[in-house]
Amino acid sequence: MNVFIIGIGLIGGSFARDIKRLRPTAKIHGIDKSEAHLAEALDLELIDAVANYDQLAIADMVIVCIPVDVLVSELPHILDVVNDDCVVFDGGSTKSLICKTLEAHPKRRNYLACHPIAGTEFSGPSAAMEGLYEGKTNIICEVEKTAFKLQEKTLELFQDMGMRIRYMNPEAHDKHIAYVSHLSHISSFMLGKTVIEKEKNERDIFDMAGSGFESTVRLAKSSPAMWTPIFEQNKENVIETLEEYISNLEAFRDLMLKGDYDGIYKEMDNTNKIKEILNGIPLNKK
Length: 286
Fold this sequence. Notes:
alpha/beta, 8-stranded mixed β-sheet, 50% helix, disordered C terminus
């Protein structure tokens, strides 16, 4: 099996590691705009060979792990080149614009719109890890538009990697992911910004930062080159979630100003229900 991975960073490289383990006869070809990434991926044995778009005609599977703004422009060209038995899937964090862009493409049946919800704050080939996707949810959109035999081939790989599969339309995906992922990153970036600005006058602030701060601000180490296009493509949903978040922050501030600590306790106690959600317990069941 000839597997081409376009974008050899954390996401693409982690796919490479799992495919090498699960499909040992597969030959993995790497495409990346960074020559340094390609050289590093070869050294780390993430890929077997450096490739280019002209070779995509021999691909059995193409995995595209590049920023979503580039995805929109590059996926049509990728589909133009692949053969009829090749499946192309991506790892983009937005889906509506990508699916709309490809809806009339002659080879739409070769594309599977995916979003594996996995990752770390690190990037580049050295960040790739085996088992990154174990137990993680992979959202698949418009599965019915992908040829059935290509669905089967890809889903078998996902299941072997230990992913949980969920199906969702692109609009619902983008709305929900704005809450559980995009808002988290904005919050982390802005918390980091706030502390950096304060640290100008209080040099010891980072000496007092504990594990709570470190875990909360971890996402602020993520790549701006990847996240800015995500916010751009999902602008309406991101603004909606930000408005709700800001409203809650302002309400909390008002409770502080009034000295309403019973109200603060109730707010935090009610929010403790997030533990039940994260443990998979519906709020209406005990």
